[in-house]
Amino acid sequence: MIRPDESLLPPGDSTSKKADGQYMRLDMYNARQFDRGRPLWLEVLWQVVQLALVTSSFSCSALRVGTLRLFGADIGQGVRIKPGLRVKFPWRLKIGNYCWVGEDVWIDNLAQVHVSDHSCVSQGVYLCTGSHNWRKTEFNLMVQSITVKEEVWLAARSVVGPGVTVGRGAVLSLGSVATHDLLPGLIYQGVPAVPIRRR
Hints:
By secondary structure, the chain is of the alpha/beta class. It has a single domain, classed as UDP N-Acetylglucosamine Acyltransferase, domain 1, CATH 2.160.10.10. It has helices spanning 40-54, 61-70; strands at 74-75, 80-81, 86-87, 93-95, 100-101, 106-108, 113-115, 120-121, 126-128, 130-132, 141-143, 146-148, 153-154, 159-160, 165-166, 171-172, 177-178, 186-189, 194-198. The strands form 4 sheets. The chain has a 7-stranded mixed beta sheet. A hairpin with an 8-residue loop joins strand 10 (130-132) and strand 11. Helix 1 (40-54) packs antiparallel against helix 2. The longest helix has 15 residues, at 40-54. The protein starts with 39 loop residues before the first helix and ends with a strand. The mean pLDDT is 92.
């Protein structure tokens, strides 16, 4: 049996039940205020083209870069992109010069994502710009941009959350989760990620 941590409960409440009896009502969810940035037909076309030319292992890095640019991504020179990349909205993606993007990276960019020069986004990294307001019964959508500064390494299977800025030269180690800004030149590890040493 799981016993609630009494320190987390409101004063005088011996249970974890919300006062109005409801935590989430997904039938009340409404994302009409969210601006997707382009018409629906272009988003649908992007999903089809992405599957064929970006996610596919049958295309090359140059073709992936060209396809992303065609759909509005701002990508610098010398960028290398491996197969399996998924991008929600390419028109909200900026990648600087000489960056590497590994296999099966997911850029879930409901808001702007900017990866700066000479940064490495390793295989399986998830960049998440969206969340939901769990305090609201309507489970409102919340989006915040992500900024990855120059010379950063996001190691395999790491996660960067909404609103996070990763400082220049920082490292987010294998499987770690950044839920807050990472300071420049430090190596971060864990869930949530904490600094463990200087680079």
